[in-house]
Design goal:
The structure holds two protein chains of two kinds.
Chain A: H1 2-45, H2 50-54, H3 68-99, H4 103-117, H5 120-132, H6 140-164, H7 168-176, H8 181-208, H9 236-244, H10 249-283
Helix pairs in contact in A: 1-10, 3-6, 3-8, 3-9, 4-6, 5-6, 6-8, 7-8, 8-10, 9-10
Chain B: E1 17-28, E2 31-42, E3 46-50, H1 57-64, E4 74-82, E5 85-86, H2 94-100, E6 101-104, H3 116-126, H4 133-146, H5 150-153, H6 166-178, E7 184-188, H7 196-210, E8 214-219, H8 222-228, E9 231-237, E10 243-250, H9 251-256, H10 261-267
Classes of the chains: A mainly alpha, B alpha/beta.
Chain lengths: 284, 272
């Protein structure tokens, strides 16, 4: 009996140790994020003012100015990338979910998986090679293309899972009414899968918002207003990069301000994704 | 036991045969599930497919509207004649077949993103049966009336179908099937997920449906088979779980004077 109690003590001690270790690491991970967020907010808050959001960058050495062209550029590049990724991503996901049993489908799935692991700079280099070099001209469109390639793996996977997750009873309900396959998919299956597809889309947008590496040799950046996707264009994260490595205090301040805007945008996208998800799960 | 069950009189035996299974066998992957089933289903009658779990009665039902083949690796052999024409003939499309032969599932499966009205109109709209809004409204009202649901939902046709109770959802699914104006209605244990009151409502409803449609119902509830059906088939799986029809006759005959001892064992509760 006494031995039993001792054994029990040892077990309890190990259990407590395990609990402490896991709790400590969790607190460390969460704490790092809080410190990071707090630091960006403290550093960036001062830079956030109307001028910062609405004005163009000033020439080197002149204080003040803003990143308005970079914000608009980010919206344009991410917007074009999203418009291109939506049809390709959702239709590929649909193909894999509905017909995805053969060798061809396995190959597509495997390639999408590999694609999701490729470094973004490699994808940028690819966009540079096929869309910048041949025309000897940097362009926002080449950046959007690189972003599309970055978004696709996530969108394909979430769309496939969303469509595959529609209950068999719902699909069969559509079949039993004598609906052709495409009518059933369009009017019954896709609406049920929509919240999850939207979630995947928002996460994919969040994934590329703030991507910088591919932009270095595609969008290239600009000091001026530019809304033509065929030309080099300013982009927020690119501006942050340029400002951060400059020797000027005012630019450092602006870099923190830009970082704060980016983080807020990604936060909004993630919250949106969660909302779409919870709305979807209530409907099912 | 037998005397406590009130058995309906079957319609006359010369009633026209609408649907007919001829030597139907079905597989899931390599596994044979039912073998050489031949049954005739008569106009304006209710035929019950009964038997213990796993005897293949649902599989047979799913062969009758070609929905069995929608599952991965599923296969069917034999013929199913609808008004004398084989629905498995190469020139017949499963889509067109399913418009003639409607189906109600074991669990109510209203389309969750749609309103009550849109659920009923899904079939007519997307099969191109009707486009005119006025005509669609009429179809919806008629289908809901036939499913004995109209009075309960007429003031909330635009609310989500998911707001209805389980029994109402199942009647909505019946209305949805009727809106395509099928000739035959297949029902796969339509009350097994419902409470007794909802079950009774649907059984009452089936009697009305039989005056306009040919109904085939799968049930493992003997009392239900006796209460609602005119004809009954008793199915049983062998040692390899391959289902076959043991006996098929009028419900009265099968419940009062079964020919096969296995049928009698099942009906008296010694089997299954």
């Amino acid at each position: 009996m006494i031995a039993d109690v001792r054994l029990d003590k040892g077990r309890r001690a190990r259990s407590a140790l395990g609990l402490i270790a896991t709790a400590f690491c969790s607190a460390l991970a969460a704490g790092l994020l809080v410190v990071l967020l707090g630091y960006v907010i403290i550093q960036g808050w001062g830079a956030l003012n109307p001028a910062f959001l609405t004005q163009l960058p000033r020439p080197v050495g002149v204080t003040g100015g803003g990143v308005a062209n970079g914000i608009v550029g980010s919206l344009i590049i991410v917007g074009i990338a999203t418009l291109m990724a939506i049809p390709v991503g959702i239709l590929t996901g649909l193909y894999l979910a509905v017909y995805g049993r053969g060798l061809a489908a396995e190959l597509v799935r495997f390639l999408a998986e590999v694609l999701s692991g490729l470094p973004s700079i490699a994808i940028g280099l690819f966009a540079y090679t096929i869309l910048v070099q041949p025309f000897s001209h940097f362009s926002a469109f080449s950046a959007a293309f690189a972003f599309t390639v970055l978004m696709l793996p996530l969108m394909i996977r979430t769309s496939e899972e969303a469509i595959r997750g529609v209950p068999t009873a719902i699909r069969e309900g559509a079949l039993a009414l004598g609906l052709p396959d495409y009518e059933g998919i369009l009017h019954i299956v896709l609406p049920v899968a929509r919240p999850l597809i939207v979630t995947g889309l928002l996460l994919a947008v969040a994934r590329v918002t703030g991507e910088t590496a591919p932009l270095l040799f595609t969008a290239f950046g600009s000091q001026f207003w530019e809304i033509n996707p065929g030309n080099p264009m300013a982009e927020l994260s690119l501006q942050i990069f340029t400002y951060a490595i400059s020797p000027y205090d005012d630019w450092h301040r602006q870099a923190w301000g830009g970082a704060l805007i980016l983080i807020l945008a990604v936060l909004v996208l993630n919250v949106g994704a969660r909302l779409a998800l919870s709305r979807g799960s209530r409907k099912r | 036991m037998q005397s406590t069950i009130a058995v309906k009189n079957a319609p006359t035996d010369d009633a026209r045969i609408v649907l007919s299974a001829r030597d139907v066998s079905a597989w899931y992957g390599g596994k044979l599930a039912i073998s050489d089933v031949s049954l005739d289903f008569r106009r304006n009658s209710i035929t019950a497919l009964m038997g213990p779990s796993g005897c293949g009665k649902t599989t047979l039902l799913r062969c009758l509207n070609r929905i069995h083949e929608a599952a991965l690796g599923a296969r069917v052999a034999g013929e199913v004649l609808l008004d004398g024409m084989d629905i498995y003939a190469s020139e017949v499309s499963p889509v067109m077949t399913r418009r003639q032969i409607g189906m109600v599932f074991q669990r109510p499966n209203p389309f969750p993103t749609m309103s009550i009205l849109d659920n009923v109109l899904t079939g007519p709209r997307y099969t191109g049966l009707a486009r005119d809004p006025h005509e669609l409204d009429q179809i919806a009202e008629e289908a809901l009336r036939r499913a004995a649901l109209f009075d309960e939902v007429k003031d909330k046709l635009r609310t989500p179908a998911s707001s209805l109770s389980g029994g109402q959802q199942q009647r909505l699914c019946i209305a949805r099937a009727l809106a395509v104006q099928p000739e035959v209605l297949l029902m796969d244990e339509p009350t097994s997920a419902l409470d007794p009151v909802s079950t009774l409502k649907i059984e009452d409803l089936m009697e009305h449906l039989a005056s306009e449609f040919t109904v085939v119902i799968v049930t493992h509830n003997l009392q239900q088979a006796a209460r609602v059906s005119h004809y009954a088939a008793f199915m049983l799986g062998d040692e390899h779980r391959v289902g076959r029809v043991v006996e098929y006759s009028s419900t009265e005959q099968i419940f009062t004077h079964p020919k096969e001892s296995r049928t009698e064992d099942y009906i008296t509760g010694r089997l299954g």
